[in-house]
Design a protein that fits this description.
By secondary structure, the protein is mainly α. It folds into three domains: 56 residues, no CATH class; 155 residues, no CATH class; 79 residues, no CATH class. Helix content is 54%, strand content 0%. The protein has 14 helices and no strands. α4 packs antiparallel against α13 and α8 runs antiparallel to α10. The longest helix has 40 residues. The protein starts with a helix and ends in a 16-residue tail after the last helix. It comes from Boudabousia marimammalium.
Amino acid sequence: MYRRQAQQLDALGLHVENLDECAKFLSQVSYYRLSAYYRYWLKDPADQNSGFMAGSTFTEIKDLYQAEEQLKHVCTQALRPLEITLRARFANSYAQLVGPRDTFLHGEGLTPPPDATGQPQFAALRNLNRSKEAAIQHFQDGEKENGEYPAEAYAELPIWVAVEAFSFGTLSKHIAASKASGVLDDVAGSLNTSPRALPSQIKSFVYLRNRISHCARIWNHPVADMPRISRSTARRASRQFRPFSDHSIYRILVALDAITYHAGITENWLEKQVEPILERQPILAAGISQPQRAGVGNPRHLLDS
């Protein structure tokens, strides 16, 4: 079956140098997944049978896909320790400024911003009730109501234990909602970033982490909710590395570079880890920094620039 798929790509005008190697790659990635990438080389991206632009090769599309996988791995290496650090910073600040127990599940110290979806304490309770961790179950007390433990069942649960059961998204909601209590400012100060910027930055990190975790494409993918970064940070990244659009994945990477540096997690991450991958793969770099929809130009011209 995979060889037939390789032959089909070849028949549509994609130069397949080695059918067996192409078939092996398709068996590992899938024809459908690869179509999200190769459609940028189609004469008509809306028609899978329209054929490929002249000179299109399987190798360049495979190389793009593999380079994106390398970039995702590098992003994960920065995102994972940052998520853990944010759990630690929030739990510490909340315990000191609001209370260590029996507060967060009742919304104390939490005032969601106007654009928030739902109350953070409800998300926290869902996370706790779904958790299979012994550390969480140890603090469950009383009877379930409609199959779930109520907030009162976790009266003795410390915030520093609870945050370990939070999803990254739930943690993000708690940090964003903690402005009035001073927790947001305290966390932002510990990371040398603006409390106005931090919620949007963490939200974008959650978004990037989720796309990577779900094996979704980040190349040529516009971001709806862009992270706040200072003008000086944006100018410096554009001048030192490359221009980028506001709704690009690259803007998230610029924010991630700054916050992981101030958290003591990385040093020159963008320069040392990200840019070498992008410099080796200009088509990937273009889609990460200046995402475009399929049908706008031919990505192959970047190889000749």
